[in-house]
Amino acid sequence: MVSGSLFHCRKQSWPPDEYVSRATLQLLDFDGAAPPEQAWRRRLNSHANKLKEFSVTFREAIKMMRLGVRLWSYVREEASHGRKAPIDPFTRENCKPSASQGVPLGGMGSGSISRGFRGEFRHWQIIPSLCEGSPIMANQFSIFISRDGGNKKFSSVLAPGHHEGIEKFGDEGISSWDWNLSGQHSTYHALFPRAWTIYDGEPDPDLKISCRQISPFIPHNYRESSLPTSVFVYTLVNTGKERAKVSLLLTWVNSIGGTSHQSGGHSNEPFVGEDGVSGVLLHHKTAKDNPPVTFAIAACETQNVNVTVLPSFGLSEEAHVTAKDMWGTMVQDGHFDRENFNTGPSIPSSSGDTLCAAVSASAWVEPHGRCTVAFALAWSSPKVKFQKGCAYYRRYTQFYGTSERSALELVHDALMNYKWWEEEIEKWQTPILKDENLPEWYKFTLFNELYFLVAGGTVWTDGESLAADEKPNSCSSHKSSTLTNGDVGTTTPEKSSNNISLVNNTTASTSSSDDEKPASNSFSDQELALVNQGRSKNCVSLHDDREHVGRFLYLEGIEYIMWCTYDVHFYASFALLDLFPKIELSIQRDFAKAVLCEDKRKVKFLAEGNWGIRKVKGAVPHDLGMHDPWHEMNAYNIHDTSRWKDLNPKFVLQVYRDFAATGDMSFGRDVWPAVRAAMEYMDQFDKDGDGLIENDGFPDQTYDAWTVHGISAYCGCLWLAALQAAATMAHRLGDRAFAERCRSKFLKAKPVFESKLWNGSYFNYDSGMSSNSRSIQADQLAGQWYTAATGLPPLFEESKIRSALQKIFEFNVMKVRGGRMGAVNGMHPNGLVDESCMQSREIWTGVTYSVAATMLLSGMEHQAFTAAEGIFISGWSEEGFGYWFQTPEAWTVDGHYRSLIYMRPLAIWAMQWALSPPKAILDAPNINMMDRIHASPFTPRAQNETGARKVVTKKRCCGTSVFSCEC
User: Fold this and answer.
1) Domain named Glycosyl-hydrolase family 116 catalytic region: which ranges (predicted)?
2) pTM here?
3) Mean per-residue pLDDT for 138-161?
4) Nearest in space to 103 (alpha carbons), one of 37, 15, 42
């Protein structure tokens, strides 16, 4: 439960001198050692509360009983094949989640390791979709201090002694180490991708210590941001009257999390590198034929810093050198024998043994003097292999090669380049941090929510899959595809064992009237050539990688293991578009190819128990798969997502936003056939021909437990926005006929939407007759959000938009614990939370951020920041639930979470987008396609009609292309 103080007035900032003495901050104020004024902070002696997971009500359990039985059977079946189900609510982690997370290590897409705010290394995600949450307690930094000729000594692990797991080891293990740090005078400061730990007189009262953690997450830098490495810079300030010999120690277990260190076959190897970089390589043999992993731990030797290593020690008394022996050597000498560098690789470990390594860096610090010691960690797993499919090389291998030993080069370059990394990070962050118009909490929460792009199970490959002779099994040997230029009937998917085909038609059935159909319902040969040209025959492996950024995947969440879940990417993608736009375009190209694909393999949908095909042509996939991404899409199998009403409009809106923001005409031309296909596919859901799609009486959208009947505010608004975006994009690409078709549908659909749903102050949840049809949905203006974010004219009158947003603010936000929790998804007009289902009564963190962005775009700054601050207070503040660096998808009003470490909260970057839209959108002409008629060879109209402007046809630069462009 939340403490009562959570919902009272709260200070607007966290000044660092409330956590660290001003005198200490002044002593550390050089070379980046002092934490910034704007940072998330926590004392190291803070208690890491156990988190409370949500539970369904009795009524919800009854309604979901059949689904639960089918899901349980499916999970068991997948387990029998040695696979994990994408959604498994029945299996819990060995360690219960706690409020202990901190800034993760490394760049994007090469595996990740998180580091808790108290210093423990945890949440290992080196193998795709496999997350080991428990900390490995032997992985630690420690310190040894000797003064006054050795008469005054201090030694301690640099982590509080009340960590879980220490007591599990015997006397020869880490329980024999000195866990003397109370943490009372030590603090953690986080501003992703950096973190500072300040030890203010612990364990030596006369020594001030700053540990600065730096990872290479640098926007628009597609090289450094892919590197699996981090640097730890220790700054030591001696305030005593005697010189001090200070030895810092990094210990590391040859493990990738869990119990992998006991599997055997691992070895360690010391090395002496260039520029004084020395350390140990830890070669890890993974289980289940996964690619091997090599870690490198190192420190940089300078004129004042001496580096030594202990390549191997163990945690049990059977080890040749035990953890207790190692610790005793450091207490006595403060360093290891330099001859250890000559020992060569160790003998591979036996099953059940734990192989560890240590690197020590020692320096003398004069009275009132300062010293800097730098350590680095890197890990190299060049090849990533998915469980059922292809193997790929990771992105960083483009620059470091495919040897596991590249960890040595990575750790060297990290120690040489980290100062430059920091300069680039500060250039990016400073304008936002110095903006006095922004709340303090918003500034550091904005950056810290980006943790997910590292810790969210990201995979970043160098492009296409490996050739058949380079991987254990070929991803293409068992798949075949057919590229067609004619009718669906000309394809022969039955001849393919897996029935995957690329088709140029949009849908098998539409309900559009004859006068609404374009001149041709199929793409011309020229149009299809834009999709097919220069690509392989496997439809889902098609990828235009002209920008050479490879291919990118990130999980929906660590509990929902599906790659690039698209209905959630709709919210999260603002972060990628703002910071790594080439990655965002790469993901959209993947989905554009997928729209035109069909996979006829049968799948059982668990909600109803019915069967259907895995991927329908014209439908945007829910995700890019799990065990075989890009080749076996739609890992999600609760509902048949080909019948969802939000995926296709979301695809159109995201593509248009990316097209408008980047001005990339080649991207627009390449994905346009998929945009048309996605729009035409939706015709089948307009059952009465009024231009507006209807929902089908089941949860057919991202709220997949919240049933919708008839016209809905959420999907209907998305559809109106998609019509406007498609019309505008069609106009800009020269497809005038399709622009006119979308415009006509919009003009027909908009009055229907408003007449069926507008009730005078907001849009009803849906047009049905259920108990929640008049509910106030927080996300009812999702389409208007994208419309405003892309510079398009508003979908509705400004008075209606502001009225609906004000209603959401007053009811969904302020009526839930005084506005200190975010926006609840559903609220009855009588002020009671809509409890018709699990999701209607939840507060979705990412949706709250997106609603706040919509408010900002409508000039409602106070309401926007108040709503979003509720997520900060409940999730990130000291008085909250403890969800920092693991922001969940949802929580209930009593703080029970669902799905930690989730993609959607990246939507806070939609707020920043609203505050600082890109120049391309600011400078774009405000073309209202819905109020204008454009001349078209298919729809001749008078050019001087009211509201119209003569369109000057430009000379085409695309040769025989069917498109004209704006160049």
Assistant:
1) 550-911
2) 0.89
3) 91
4) 42
